Amino acid sequence: MQYRPEPLRESDRYRGRRRAPRPARGRYAAVITTAFIGAGVVAFGAGAGFKDAKVDALSSDASTLADAGLSRELMADRPSRDKGLNSSINQAPKDAWILPFRHYRVTSLFGQRWGRLHAGVDLGGIPEGTPFGAVHDGTVILARFNGGYGNCVIIDHGVDANGNRLQTVYGHASKLLVKEGQVVKAGDIIALAGNTGHSFGTHLHLEIHVNGQVVNPVPWFKDHGVDFFLETEAVFGEGEASD
After folding, report:
1. Dihedral angle of Cα 220, 222, 226, 230, to the nearest 10 degrees
2. Within 10 A of 232 (CB to CB), how many other CB atoms are there?
3. What number is the average pLDDT over the span 141-167?
4. Are residues 30 and 136 in the same domain?
5. Which neighbouring-strand residues pair with 140?
6. Is the pLDDT of residue 133 over 80?
7. Percentage of the residues of the chain whose pLDDT score is greater than 70
8. Could you give the number of structural domains in the chain?
9. Kindly report the CA angle at 163 between 161 and 165, in degrees rounded to 5?
């Protein structure tokens, strides 16, 4: 007859084992609180060692962090434009310059990168498929895959009051929503943000060309009432164009 051991009783399962004493509820809460505070201090110290592109640009533009914070508080009290699909409510007035979308981070600025010119400003920190709009009225002259730009849109805005021909370039889109020859208004959705072409992560690469030459978009747009760092547009009462 085969021997079958009797099943262990619940009280026998822990015989010989030493259970760790359970801390009092108040002490447990104190430990957790201390851990969170300590983690916050470490995170703050680590973050202090890194510079944000927005901070660098604001500093180079002779602005202080205090001024930037104050400006954001003031702007928060003003009526804002919530960018989505275009409508009669959020469509910009004629000849206005506006942001392509909202709630982004400036991830790269105009300048030399690894021995080559980075000819625009990169707006990242957004999910793939985020819709973006034309920053000014114009005609689409290119809407296709364009080498390192990936899926790309180029809009010709015609000649301004000073006789300068203006064009904007939008790179790395995941999907194009306009066709060449199409007339668009400021705020019309033209594509979805992506990571196509020579790109590292989802973002919009935006350029401004004046008479066929690339110029730094940050000061140029600021002169036309658009501040990439504060996300403000003069035409919507959220900023003032420079002299």
Report:
1. 130
2. 22
3. 97
4. no
5. 155
6. yes
7. 59
8. 2
9. 105
Taking CA atoms, 32 is separated from 35, 36, 37, 230, in Å, by 5, 6, 9, 37
Tell me, yes or no, whether 105 and 157 share the same domain.
yes
**Do 38 and 69 share a domain, yes or no?**
no
Residue 63 DSSP one-character state: -
Domain with 196 in it:
61-236
pLDDT at 34 over 70: no
Instruction: Dump the DSSP string for 122-190.
Output: EEES--TT-EEE-SSSEEEEEEEE-GGG-EEEEEEEEE-TTS-EEEEEEEEEEEE---TT-EE-TT-EE
- Which of 54, 204, 197, 72 is closest to 126 using CA atoms? 204
Would you say how long the chain is, in residues? 243
**Amino acid 238: pLDDT:** 64
DSSP H or E segment with residue 33: helix 25-47
Structure tokens at 51: 């510079």
